[in-house]
Amino acid sequence: MKKRVIIDTDGGVDDVLALILALCSSELKVEAITTVFGNVPVVQATKNIIRTLDLLCIKRPPVVAIGASSPLNKAHISAQDVHGTDGLGEIYRLNKPDGTPVYPDISLDRDVPCATDLILSTIKKYPSEITLITIGPLTNLANTILTCHGALKDVAEIIIMGGALNVPGNITPFAEYNVFADPHAAKIVLSSGLPIVLVPLDVTRSAIWNQDAIFATAQAIREPLGRFILDITGKVMDFAQKKKGIRAVTLHDPLAVGISIDHSLANISSIHVDVQTDRIETEGKTAPYFRAIKEEFKGQSNIRTIMNVDGQRFLTFFEERICKG
Ligand code: BDR
Ligand code: CA
To answer: Which residue of 7, 9, 10 sits with most ligand 1 atoms within 8 Å of its CB, as the best mutation to test the pocket?
Structure first.
């Protein structure tokens, strides 16, 4: 039986790659996609998701719902320096030889559903069957918990790409972007007692998709999807080149989807994690309390987390699947 999933996303480059992975994987049935502010404003994130679904030409595409446009208790800080002003590597600038845009703007239907409603109704429709995969700031999930915590007892599992446990952050020295973007939401979610598996930077950093591999994979994918993957990854690679001296895309969000398909890609341990919200310098830091792993402290664990990943095994898994796109 297929695993039913909801993907909650902020519509950046690795988000779109995660979505492609999910939709190319026969083990998953993507029931819904909900969007949130983050890498880009929420309307742009929603357009990016709709564009990706259009390119995939799926017969019955999942419902898309729009979510939070800002964090619970701070201003929105985007990641447009990494993902481009449009969240997809500035593809809006690309023109055909006749001067018309390769990727024309998408207009949003006025009655796009609301993310929290769709999360709640999908869980209600499939009690104990839904895996919720969050690959953006945790605001939609926090809002769902605040609206109706009880309804979430029927979620099978929540897989969250976020946090930096024993490694430096990627937006501040301490914080990972998805948690930093809305630390108050992350605190509500991680202390909710829900069945969470965290996929932190500690492991996503081993999923490095380099330029040669991107070119080779894109060539093996049918058009226009192959071209799209090349077009959206260029700017992220420029950013990585400047920061780290390598031309590559880190597959943070696809790894979260990969874990939902195959838990054996990683080692999972119980742990207690707190999110820091009170001090500006360490805002969004996910502080692990490793003693919770010990048997006598098991009761204190609030989540499970991925500790190790075989990056190469995941890359092969990812490429094989998206080639079927
Ligand atoms: C996370 O931040 C975003 O920019 C990426 O899409 C990913 O979800 C990595 O820290
Ligand atoms: Ca993301």
So the answer is: 10
